[in-house]
Write a structure and sequence with these properties.
This protein has 2 domains: 163 residues, VC0802-like (2-Layer Sandwich), CATH 3.30.2130.30; 224 residues, Rossmann fold. It has 15 helices and 15 strands. Strands 1, 2, 3, 4, 5, 6, 7, 8 and 9 form a 9-stranded mixed β-sheet that branches. Helix 7 runs antiparallel to helix 8, helix 8 packs across helix 9 and helix 8 packs across helix 14. The longest helix has 19 residues. It is elongated. Bound molecules: adenosine-5'-triphosphate and magnesium ion (MG).
């Protein structure tokens, strides 16, 4: 007996009340997109589950693809059988016989969504359990920790058999939670922050500050490659490259050295917020982690964050560097981030930036320069790229190893 479908269980989306339909539709689209290389499959979605009907396609390969899709809690290869006790007995026996290895234990877990079925759960348990025990020599029952858990689900239209549950990636379906701008440097942290946000359903656009000739084309390439990695989740990702040299030079000339970093961050945030407005986003995401460097102390954040009311999401705020690196490794961005090209911040960052900058002081230092004008100019000169990936979704399955 061969599995003819894969049953997909939703995670948290099933708690989303009236929005549920929208969420299910987003998830269905993710599944369809991830499985374009299997032309014969069919995807059936209903409000509480989804089926990928295999129609002869390779279930194992499809399972690998499904493992990376956000919004899936778990899934099981399954067989659909007619609602007839003899049929169920026979199909269950064939299924278990095909996977059973001598000495293994089992239990039956019936679920009766349709109460009109002739057997109740105890009845299914007894009839199927007895049939299996009688026909598979050596098979034993173990209700606590069975090797094989035979799930029999009776629904109105049919009965579904499965005995393996595979963990899904969790999270929420892609692009189901609104749009945000990801401040993407060439470092280790921000791509991880981007990944975690995408996992939670956010729709991202990336913003990168670039300071030629102080930063080279190769550091730009590095950011493009990072964007490409993240793009594998959507198929493509928009990247805004902001020319930042002039502003940085003005800051260096006009602001006392120990405050240059604070002002530089404030300018980055103001520009990102401008882009956010134009792109109709609702939040800004950074890779900041509390106390990691001078700009990430709470005092610094207090001084920097002042320039906007827009929610700033910091998915890594409480994470240690070692944990962040682990995720970067899993999602395959670490190697790119580790390429040794200079970032605009590292070049202009002073030897001893203020770890406890004060707002009043920043205001005074910034008051001598018309930053508004410089920001406008920078925004006008933004280069917007649509980064696509050739093999969308392949990364998806790599990602899943972690979650
Ligand atoms: P990362 O590893 O993400 O670069 P980091 O630990 O090096 O982070 P910072 O350099 O202080 O920390 O940057 C903090 C955050 O500010 C980054 O995570 C990123 O979101 C944003 N950021 C820094 N530099 C840039 C840049 N050149 N372009 C866009 N965003 C940036
Ligand atoms: Mg950095």
């Amino acid at each position: 007996m061969k599995y003819d479908r894969i049953l997909i269980r939703y995670g948290e989306i099933s708690t989303k009340g009236r929005n549920r339909h929208k969420f299910v539709e987003k998830l269905r689209r993710s599944v369809v997109n991830a499985l374009t290389s299997f032309p014969s499959i069919k995807v059936e979605a209903s409000r509480d589950r989804m089926y990928v009907i295999l129609n002869g396609e390779d279930g194992k390969e499809i399972i690998e693809k499904l493992k990376g899709i956000f919004g899936i809690q778990s899934f099981s290869p399954a067989i659909k059988v007619e609602r007839d006790v003899e049929n169920i007995k026979q199909a269950t026996l064939e299924l278990i016989s095909s996977i059973y290895r001598v000495g293994q234990t089992f239990k039956v877990t019936p679920k009766r969504s349709d109460k009109t079925f002739e057997l109740d759960t105890d009845g299914i348990n007894r009839v199927i359990g007895t049939h299996l025990l009688k026909n598979i020599p050596g098979l034993k029952v173990n209700v606590k920790e069975p090797d094989i858990n035979v799930r029999i689900e009776v629904r109105q239209e049919a009965v579904y058999l499965s005995c393996e549950t595979i963990q899904g990636a969790g999270g929420l379906p892609v692009k189901s939670a609104g749009k945000a701008m990801l401040m993407l440097s060439g470092g280790i942290d921000s791509p991880v922050a981007g990944y975690l946000s995408m996992k939670r359903g956010l729709e991202l656009e990336a913003v990168h500050f670039f300071s030629p000739p102080y930063t080279s084309e190769r550091s730009k390439e590095k950011v493009i490659d990072l964007t490409k990695k993240l793009a594998e989740i959507y198929g493509s990702l928009t990247l805004h490259i902001v020319p930042f040299t002039e502003i940085q030079q003005v800051i260096k000339e006009q602001v006392p050295e120990n405050y240059t970093m604070t002002t530089m961050r404030r300018m980055m945030l103001r520009i990102t917020d401008e882009i956010r407005k134009q792109r109709e986003g609702l939040a800004i995401i950074t890779g900041e982690s509390l106390g990691q460097v001078a700009s990430q102390t709470l005092e610094s954040m207090f001084a920097i964050n002042e320039v906007t009311n827009t929610p700033i999401l910091r998915p890594l705020i409480s994470m240690d560097k070692t944990d962040i690196i682990k995720i970067a490794q899993e999602i395959d961005t670490l190697e790119i981030s580790n390429r040794p090209f200079e970032d605009c911040c590292t070049i202009f960052v002073p030897a001893s930036p203020k770890t406890k900058p004060r707002r009043e002081k920043v205001h005074r230092y910034e008051s001598f320069v018309d930053f508004e004008e410089l920001i406008k100019e920078a925004v006008q000169k933004i280069e917007t790229l649509n980064i696509t990936t050739d093999d969308a979704h392949d990364l998806h399955s790599e990602f899943n190893a972690l979650f």
